[in-house]
Every structure is written in C-alpha cells, then in structure tokens.
Amino acid sequence: MTLLEADGLRKTFGGIVAVDDVSFEVERQEIVGVIGPNGAGKSTMFKLLAGFHKPDEGTVTFDGEDITDLAPNERTQRGLVRTFQIAQELTGMRVMDNMLLASQNNPGEKVLAAAANTSSVREFEGNARDRAEELLKFLELWDLRDEYAGNLSGGQRKLLELGRALMADPELLLLDEPMAGVNPDLTDRLLQRIMDLRDERDMTFLVVEHDIEAIMRISNTVIGMHDGGVLSKGTPEEVQSDERMLEAYLGGEV
Ligand SMILES: Nc1ncnc2c1ncn2[C@@H]1O[C@H](COP(=O)(O)OP(=O)(O)OP(=O)(O)O)[C@@H](O)[C@H]1O
Questions:
Q1: Which residues make beta-bridge pairs with 148?
Q2: Percent of the chain with pLDDT over 70
Q3: Which of 9, 12, 13 to mutate to test the pocket of ligand 1 (most atoms within 8 A of CB)?
C-alpha cells in the first residue's frame, strides 16, 4: 500500500531546474534509497517532501492526503518526520534531555493524543521519559544518557538524531545522509536499527545517502536521480546494474 507519493514535482531556483518532473511512490514498510551524483537534485527533492521547499509544480501525498501546502511541523504531526542535526545549543545538554526536548518540540499525533487523554502534565512527561528510555536502550545509547550530546562520536550523534526523530512516533522517516561522519563500527548498528524499525515496528523510510554500499544493503527500492529527474528505479540490483546510472556518475563519459 502506498504511503507517500510524489507526483510531477518541479523546483527551480532562478534559471536552475533542480528537480524536474519527479514522480514516485513509497510503499508502507519499505526502505527507499535515493542516490545520484552531486547536483542531481536529491537534497532539493528531500526538502520538497519535508516541506522546506514549496514545489513550482506537482504534489506530495501522504497517507492519502495532499500535503503539498503543509508546513514541516504539520507534516511531522501527521507522521512524516525528518531527522535534524543536533543544533549547537543542544550539544551542551545531556542525551536524555535531548530526547525529552524532542518530544516537547515535535509531538506526533499519537503523542498529542496521549497527552490529551492523560490527567496531568506529569503523566505526559512520565510517558515521554519511558519512551525515551526504551528508545535509548533500543539504540544502545542508554549507558550514555547522562553524557553531553557534544561529547558523542559522529555515529553516536546520528543515533541520537534518529532517537530524537523517533520520539515523534513517525510513520515515515526521512533521513538525509545518515551515514555521513559515522565510523565503520557504528555503521552496522545504525543500518541494523533502521531495518529493525522497518521489520519490527512497521516503519517506512526514505533515505538520501552518498554511501551507495549502505543504500544497497538496506533498501527495498532504489531511486537513482540525475539532472533533477528520476533516471532509474527498481531493486538495488536493478539500479546498480543500470548502465545509465554508471554513465551519470561518470559524467556521461562511458
Ligand atoms: N537554494 C538554492 N539556490 C540555488 N540553487 C540551488 C539551491 N538548492 C539547490 N540548488 C541547485 O539545484 C541543483 C540540485 O542541487 P541539490 O543540492 O538538490 O543536489 P544533490 O543531488 O542533493 O547534490 P549533492 O549530492 O551535492 O548534495 C544544483 O544545481 C544546485 O546548485
């Protein structure tokens, strides 16, 4: 069943066409990886889905609803969530407090409903604390709960960013370069947790990533972008063996 649909998305900046007639669907409980050479339009497409850019043309549909005109936080409340880099002012806060603050800033629909149904704010905070504990254990960050976020390694920070996004109880999580700055020993854990979230918690992912090997390992479907458009779409094997993608990466010299 389709959860997210991009239909005819186009975005220009002055004379530059960054995204041109991009259409695709993301099915529930799949991981969709987006790859492509520099300037292919991946980040712009990501921002169109997250609501940071408005398209010149086209629509974004989530869970059957046209969300093209919704702001990022309105998308978050509907379950379409993106990760954020830990802001500078949060690096001086402890890991646990980072998690709790994320739930206050970005409560998802289910979290809001829970707050409305509980008799006191304290109970809501207790629920958030329980959820933060469960997620930190799931991400193997529990032992670091009292550490300042600024002291975490690149990979641990990425796991915390994932944890903060999970506090909003997403249905679909948009991940922008989750592997950037992650050392190899944490790469496996991060990829495994993303697959666990799909397999055990029915979550759906769209991942923009330069690390093609990582994308090939976790994705059900890969979208290959080039020159603002979708050049190739299929299983990881299909896209990897698509000669047009190879040409795109090599600048058309093949
Ligand atoms: N805010 C902007 N203003 C002007 N041009 C932009 C803007 N954002 C993106 N572009 C241009 O749009 C095109 C697509 O850029 P985009 O960042 O989406 O590609 P990308 O595939 O994410 O690249 P990279 O892998 O290098 O991050 C590029 O030519 C880029 O220079």
A1: 94
A2: 90
A3: 13
